[in-house]
Amino acid sequence: MKIDGLTSEIRQAGCAGFCYEQTGRPRFRDRVTFYRDGRVLFERYCYGEAAGRACSMWASGVDPQGRILWDYDACSYTGKTEAPVQITGAGHGGLVLDGKPAVWARVETLKTDKEHGYGALKMLWLRLRGM
Questions:
Q1: 3-state helix, strand and coil shares in percent for the chain, rounded to the nearest 5
Q2: pLDDT digit string, tens, across residues 67-83
Q3: Burial environment of residue 56 by CB neighbours within 10 A (0 to 12, 13 to 18, 19 or more)
Q4: pLDDT tens digit string along 18-33?
Q5: What is the helix (H) or strand (E) element at residue 113, kind and residue range?
Q6: Per-residue CA distances from 17 to 25, 55, 66, 78, 104 (Å)
Q7: Do β-strands 94-97 and 103-110 pair in parallel, antiparallel, or remain unpaired?
Q8: Which residue among 51, 100, 117, 126 has the highest number of C-beta atoms inside a 10 angstrom radius?
Q9: Cα distance between residue 92 and residue 13, in whole Å
């Protein structure tokens, strides 16, 4: 899948990004957020007594073949290789990552995301630049 379709859909919605979470019964709550400027954020949350965010990792973008360009060196978490590697399909509000049968469903549309650097001023700046 080409990332251009997803980023143009985000821009048309006038928001900062779309958040996707893996459906089914995964051991962790993995979340992938695609932003309007092409950046991607992977976050892994634990359940149970150690509930909370275990790691987060950024990607500068997605290449033309759909491979996500993660910055593995910036993440100290040992499970970073479990982050999805490639977007292999999309449709009906979900994504297929790495060709696995589990669908990643869209769970949130972010108008802004100040915590990750997409506040109201940056959103205005991106819109003015056509990004």
A1: 25, 40, 30
A2: 999 988 877 776 667 78
A3: middle
A4: 999 988 767 788 899 9
A5: none
A6: 25, 19, 17, 27, 15
A7: antiparallel
A8: 126
A9: 16
**Residues with Cβ within 8 Å of residue 97, at least 6 apart in sequence:** 32, 84, 85, 86, 87, 88, 104
The dihedral built from the CA positions of residue 123, 93, 26 and 77, taken in this order, carries a sign that is negative
Q: Is the dihedral of CA 12, 83, 101, 23 positive or negative?
A: negative
Amino acid at 23: T
Name 89's bridge partners: 96
User: 67, 86 in Cβ contact below 8 A?
Assistant: yes
Quote the CA–CA distance of 66 and 54 in Å, as a whole number.
25
| 105 bridge partner residues | 21, 94
User: Measured in whole angstroms, how far is the alpha carbon of residue 27 from the centre of its chain?
Assistant: 19
Contact 120, 128 (CB under 8 A): no
C-beta of residue 84 within 8 angstroms of C-beta of residue 95: no
